[in-house]
Design goal:
The complex is a heterodimer of chains A (about 110) and B (about 110). Helix content of chain A is about 0%, strand content about 55%. Chain A has strands spanning about 5, 10-15, 20-25, 30-35, 45-50, 55-60, 60-65, 70-75, 85-90, 100-105, 110-114. In chain A, the strands form two sheets. In chain A, strands 2, 4, 5, 9, 10 and 11 form a six-stranded mixed sheet that branches. Chain A has a five-stranded antiparallel sheet with strand order 1-3-8-7-6, with no helix packed on it. In chain A, strand 6 and strand 7 (about 60-65) form a beta hairpin. Chain A is globular and about 40 Å long. Chain B is mainly β and about 110 residues long. Chain B is globular and about 40 Å long. The chains are: A mainly beta (about 110), B mainly beta (about 110). The interface of A and B includes residues 6, 88 and 106 of A.
């Protein structure tokens, strides 16, 4: 079963527009990670959130973990073509006893048209 | 420069052959991971290792094998038993303090 759901699956925006990507978990999130991936390349770490209500920013990208720690949102302000790529959220599977590992959502494909 | 290297970037094999994908890290991380990514899908965990000489199966371990004889190296063998081996393979290691997971550039394997 899918433990992390991302929405939307794909997003096409005009340059300069704001956008939001959501990541929802069926279980409490103890560590939520956001990554960006260019097609055919490795993942680039963006941010990690741990506390309910926590919000972090990196350049024009802001990520937030809700108070109940079951949903995170990634917001991009004034999007640019350089923001295009696949955004993935990952979460610590602490509910398993097999140790430290991440589970990932299916990703959101972002296209920014100039 | 510290980081994770995967080689080669592209790999082609005939059906029925085993193939080994390389993953090396010089970040001094204990934990290392192998993921598979298929078009339009997220990452699925194949195997992971939290310490040298120890590893665990992930969600899709069938048809794969690994070894962890050195801290720096975590090679993945795709065996002929893997039904759909063509995919993009990503290796990662994890910082035991910050818990940030670092990824390699990936290897695209094509089996025909």
């Amino acid at each position: 079963s899918q433990e992390l759901e991302q929405s939307p699956q794909s997003l096409i925006v005009q340059e300069g527009k704001n956008l939001t990507i959501n990541c929802t978990s069926s279980k409490t999130l103890y560590g939520l990670y956001w990554y960006k991936q260019k097609y055919g390349e490795g993942l680039i770490f963006l941010m990690m959130l741990q506390k309910g209500g926590e919000e972090k920013s990196h350049e024009k990208i802001t990520a937030k973990l809700d108070e109940k720690k079951q949903q995170s949102s990634l917001h991009i302000t004034a999007s640019q073509p350089s923001h295009a790529g696949i955004y993935l959220c990952g979460a610590d599977k602490w509910w398993e006893t097999s140790g430290s590992r991440l589970t990932f959502g299916e990703g959101t494909q972002l296209t920014v048209n100039p | 420069d510290g980081g994770i290297t995967q080689s080669p970037k592209y790999l082609f094999r005939k059906e029925g052959q085993n193939v080994t994908l390389s993953c090396e890290q010089n970040l001094n991380h204990d934990a290392m991971y192998w993921y598979r990514q298929d078009p339009g899908q997220g990452l699925r965990l194949i195997y992971y290792s939290q310490i040298v000489n120890d590893f665990q199966k992930g969600d899709i371990a069938e048809g794969y094998s690994v070894s962890r004889e050195k801290k720096e190296s975590f090679p993945l063998t795709v065996t002929s038993a893997q039904k759909n081996p063509t995919a993009f393979y990503l290796c990662a290691s994890r910082d035991g303090t910050s818990y940030e997971q670092y990824f390699g550039p990936g290897t695209r394997l094509t089996v025909t």
